[in-house]
Amino acid sequence: MMQERIVARLKEALDPVSLDVVDESDRHAGHAGARAGGGTHYRVRVVSARFKRQSRIERHRLVYGVLAAEFADGLHALALVAKAPDEP
Fold it and tell me: Which CATH superfamily is 2-83 part of?
């Protein structure tokens, strides 16, 4: 399952303090990249010390790089919030 793959990869790469991954594929039916059965659109909120002193763009690039195989296998979009532990 795509959600389990996303969680496993992010945990391994980022050692997060907090991680929430929600499949929102059902909200995107008929949208480009959506497919029957879901697994294409996710909302991710991750808090990790790896993000300290990184810009928002650097954080997003890091996460997208970690999930490169999932994007190649059908993951279409992330709504991503990436924070360091000392950020609100």
Answer: BolA-like (3.30.300.90)
